[in-house]
Design a protein that fits this description.
2 copies of one chain form a homodimer. The first copy, chain A, is an alpha/beta fold and 312 residues long. Chain A folds into 2 domains: 104 residues, 3-Layer(aba) Sandwich (Rossmann fold); 185 residues, NAD(P)-binding Rossmann-like Domain (Rossmann fold, 3-Layer(aba) Sandwich). In chain A, 28% of the residues lie in helices and 16% in strands. Chain A is built from 8 helices and 12 strands. In chain A, the strands form 2 sheets. A 7-stranded parallel sheet of chain A has the order 8-7-6-9-10-11-12. A 5-stranded parallel sheet of chain A has the order 2-1-3-4-5, with helices on one face. The two termini of chain A are 26 Å apart. At the A-B interface, α2 and α3 of A face α3 and α4 of B.
């Protein structure tokens, strides 16, 4: 039996799509009349504190989110394997966001918009993509997808991750001791890291000050499409104001929705989007997790299982 | 002998770079003391009316501009072959501009910027790139380069050109009779056409009204990186105001610099840049045209020669 426990999204829509895909396998929702001991899979998003109570025969916890940092904080998380959502469609959407913001900053959008508002015809020729270095933090599925889409555009690419990752055309830096070297050659910093105790707050003033300063007119740029917990927003405000950063694109925030009082809203060189870089669609989610369940029921091993030690 | 005749650019810089590259082949500038009959190649940008007088032994006219529409209007243009600038570096820079503006509009930049200014947290998920159709007008070197960079991003691509062009992953439409079908399936229209009597004013209200309207929130988009003569700016203002177009990115204008009085400057959904999408750099220009001259002197046929009948 599959139990759905989804907050803040259309749980009923997901349930009917799963029921259709998995029939005759039983699919239930919170509030339905079912035996908790019969639940073998629970599909969760923002689970309540009692979400896992009485589910004594769980085979796996299925996470709608690609990032499991919030789920990992659940106080009564069961020992069953946690399966993350890994999906081509989600990766595509995330890369759509990353490419749009990287290219916009490469082409000096902030400068040209200010010129336009002043009715100023001021010719300036941005460097070619090859002269611009994009540094991707996090080289999991999302980071690798972004790299593969940025490479044909001609950008010079480097990556930073916990362990070395060999991706064609991307210079790999790994581990805390390589971070400074990675930053020193990066013009546009893209964050796609998982949120863990090691990566929390990594987008801070000291990090920004280590980015390469002599290439992009206006200063280096950050693009955060991962988690608000990665960034120190007070540091971003300071860096955008004093020129340590030329611009920032932020899709995630320390508190979401971003409070009305945040100074980020009003900064001309800060590009705020409301956590919409990528969404897990019902179509792709049902396809993916139905395959997970049917494979597991057929005795195949689970894939994309979270490593609880490293936290993702 | 190579004669340089360049207005509004650093002619002296070009001359010294050519002299270094071509030595001992002679390189002269306007105003130098030389025999006009000895000039075999003239390298021009915005030539004056007397630019070609007395050059009775020309092998070729070399055009700094990739577009030769203005040169073709020169009243005393000699019969010698005209060689256009075709260059990977120029194509790269043009594609940098095209990709940045296509992806920005695909990701609904105008909407999210307005939300930010209103401090409005309004979640909206743009369609994946594959659900968005980019239509490229003009499939010469620049159009093909843009297509090859947009394809790995996942966009659905179609092209429109004078004659059919087979490019992998791009649906080809050709000729005036296919224009409406091309437009009817296009969400983001990119213009990279040469400017000829047939293409002048092609970006007009009737064209905009034929674009696909049911995909991109806010309406279809145009990106013009070719020539101001392609667009009817009064029509663009009208279409941006009444919703026929959702947004426009314009790098070129009917009159350049864009007059202070133009309403385009003040439109929130119009993105004005001052004809900076792509520039011919001295390094790449000298490399390209030195090769042209040395090959011609060695008896090889000229490449990238303008067809005067079709106008490019």
């Amino acid at each position: 039996m599959l139990l759905l426990h989804l907050s803040d999204v259309d749980e009923a829509g997901w349930a009917s799509a799963f029921a259709e895909q998995l029939a005759p396998y039983p699919v239930v929702r919170r509030g339905d009349d079912f035996d908790p001991a019969a639940v073998r899979y629970v599909f969760v998003w923002k689970p309540t504190p009692d979400a896992f109570d009485d589910l004594v025969n769980l085979e796996a916890v299925l996470s709608l989110g690609a990032g499991v940092d919030a789920l990992m904080q659940h106080l009564r998380l069961p020992d069953a394997p946690i399966v993350r959502f890994v999906d081509d469609d989600l990766s595509q959407r995330m890369s759509d966001y990353v490419v749009a913001h990287v290219t916009m900053h490469h082409r000096q959008f902030t400068r040209f918009r200010a010129d336009q508002q002043a009715r100023r015809w001021s010719q300036f020729y941005p460097p070619a993509a090859a002269e611009t270095s994009v540094g991707i933090m996090g080289m999991g599925v999302l980071g690798q997808d972004a790299a593969q889409r940025l490479a044909p555009l001609g950008f010079t690419l480097r990556s930073w991750s916990r362990t070395p990752k060999q991706v064609e055309g991307v210079t790999s830096y790994a581990g805390a001791e390589a971070l400074d070297d990675f930053l020193a050659g990066t013009d546009i910093l893209v964050n796609l890291l998982p949120l863990t105790p090691e990566t929390r707050g990594i987008l801070n003033y000291a990090t920004f000050a280590k980015l390469r300063r002599d290439r992009l007119e206006g200063g280096p740029v950050i693009v955060n499409a991962a988690r608000g917990g990665h960034q120190k927003e007070a540091d971003i405000v300071r860096a955008l104001g004093d020129g340590t950063l030329g611009a920032a694109s932020l899709d995630v925030f320390e508190i979401e929705p971003l409070p009305d009082s945040s100074p980020l809203w009003a900064l001309e060189n800060c590009y705020v989007t409301p956590h919409i870089a990528a969404i897990s669609t019902v179509t792709s989610g049902v396809r993916y997790f139905s395959r997970v369940i049917l494979d597991a029921e057929a005795g195949k091993p689970l894939v994309n299982v979270v490593d609880r030690q490293r936290g993702y």
